[in-house]
Amino acid sequence: PCRRIDNPIEIYFDKDEKRRAVVSAITEAYEKERPVLVGTESIEESESLAAELREKGVKCSVLNAKNNFEEAGIIAKAGERKTVTITTNMAGRGVDIKLGGEDCADKEFVESVGGLLVIVTSMRESSRIVRQIRGRAGRQGDVGESRYFAALDDEIAVKNNLKKLCGRHYPSEKTSGVITDKVVLREAERVQRITESDAFDERVNLMKYTLIGEKHRELTFSRRNALLDGEYNSEMWKKNAPDDYEKACERFGKKAVQKLENEVLAALLNEFHCDYLDYTAYLREGIHLTQIAGRNPADEYNIACEEYYENAAQTIPDRMTEKLEALLECGKIEDYKVEKPTGIYTYLLNDMAEEFKAKPILLSVFSEEEDEEKTLVNESKIEKKGFFGKLFGKK
Q1: What pTM does this model have?
Q2: Pairing state of beta strands 60-63 and 36-39?
Q3: What domains lie within the chain, and their CATH numbers?
């Protein structure tokens, strides 16, 4: 059974008050020689918190993306007495932090002071991240504790207008100490759910744009790989220009011509897919403008991609025939050079779906929607939406 104590969220007026509370909690545990693991939101926060603690005489280790190669060594010591480890979200996942150190020499003492204390320093976009950080304490039936700190001006709280949701319960002036108003606590939890719903919307929206590309990529490369693996032989040249094909076979041999034709087609498929990626990258830059005409950008994007793919695919036989005509001018088949790309290009799809969220200013001017309706999300609607309802819902 889990013996970890998960304390409820502690909300403070601003980040300064929250930082003082976090530093106080760490210092108090350090004086008791209790191990502490702190989960920060960013590299900058982890380093600034470490600097502040060191000024107060608290020795601590920092683990973030800058020194992730030291992760194993730092995490191995995170359960030792009087050890403070400051990490980001990425650090220490899936690691069994042993109380009292790797050899468990001080396990009894660490258990007597409450086990590993895990501290979450701010609201996260997903409650899953919070649970992951909390879960680094109390593993394998060990004792442990977690504390979750937040502030009214945390990025997530401001972005989702926590102040407006709280109404008259929102503190009118700066206060010190933990905010105990039940409405504020309830609305803070609601903001967490709203944020998770927005993140889910982004993932679903991104999926609507990426699935068509995945389909076309798999189709193109399955054909290309079949050529390279010898599972399929092209007959395009024979069908498009049978006379030229027969001449080439007589001069160079059917087997050699077939091998060369497969290589040319594979190279053409590479070129075809690069052109496709270039087109879709260009298309994404302005697809949101179709909203002005009352169309769904995701639908228009998928239709345009499908049309481009089909039309471009129909040009491959002619392009291939044109390229292979040059073979008849060669003295030896080895003299024919298959054209290959001379450079490498990277096409990146924004994984946060920001490029699909952009709206032209005209939409803001002529939209009939009220800002309040966009800001305040119906909580029951969030909880009842299913995955398929979102994915295949109204266009």
Answers
A1: 0.58
A2: unpaired
A3: 3-180 (3.40.50.300), 204-364 (1.10.3060.10)
